[in-house]
Amino acid sequence: MRYITLDIEGDGLSQEYNKQVFPEGNHYDKDTRIWCVTFHNGSTNKTFVCKLPKTTRRLPRPYRVGNSICWYTRAFHEDSTVVPETLNGYRIERIDDYGRFLKRIAEFIETASKLGIIIYFKGYGSYNYDKDALRDNFAKFGINCDLSCLINKHVNNWHKTTPQVNSRQHLANQHYMEQGIIHNIEDAKQLFDYCTKETTCQDLQDGES
Questions:
Q1: Which residues contact 201 (CB under 8 A, 6 or more apart)?
Q2: Residue 204: inside a domain, yes or no?
Q3: What are phi and psi of 15, to 5 degrees?
Q4: Residue 155's Cα: distance from chain center in Å?
Q5: pTM here?
Q6: To 10 degrees, what angle do helices 98-114 and 129-140 make?
Q7: Where are the alpha helices (DSSP H) in the chain?
Q8: Distance CA 34, CA 96 (A)
Q9: Contact at 8 Å (CB) between 130 and 6?
Q10: Residue 30, phi-psi category: left (phi > 0), alpha (psi -120 to 50), beta (remainder)
Q11: Distance of alpha carbon 209 from alpha carbon 162, whole angstroms
Q12: 55-86: per-residue pLDDT in tens?
């Protein structure tokens, strides 16, 4: 069986705040905008990035931060923030148009599916958060993509990778973006390593990633 792993980053709130806005089920925000996606095959990555808007998104319900009531997401990218061509030795593919970014991801998934490759992602327990986010974003842009090759991998003893940071923390927005990309890549790699412990892996051939 051949497989790769997938991880996505979106503009949703951190778990602490997200539960206040979406208290039911998996606290899913159907309007999450995806900005970074990594596929990993054990030796190489394919990472796509499309910058977030510089304005944040209004939510259907407010959440509390300290003594303040907030209605907006917190993740954004400034005009001056630049998607790096490489990061920690990994190549990053920048796509400026969001619809084209989603189409590129859909094409990658479709190619993997046609080759009989499973794509594992780490779910939120039994909930398919990453898969649902892809499905809903594709639907908004009229992108048809068979997501049946995406499989929720239940993971125990997950080790925290480079921490995600809040864009409101006292960090340059460039640093905020780069930390998010590194976190995304490391999560995709760790999931692959986890799968390898459970599954006999046949490496992808050149050109298949």
A1: 1, 2, 3, 42, 195
A2: no
A3: -55, -40
A4: 17
A5: 0.88
A6: 120
A7: 15-21, 98-114, 129-140, 173-198
A8: 13
A9: yes
A10: alpha
A11: 24
A12: 999 999 999 999 999 999 999 999 999 999 99
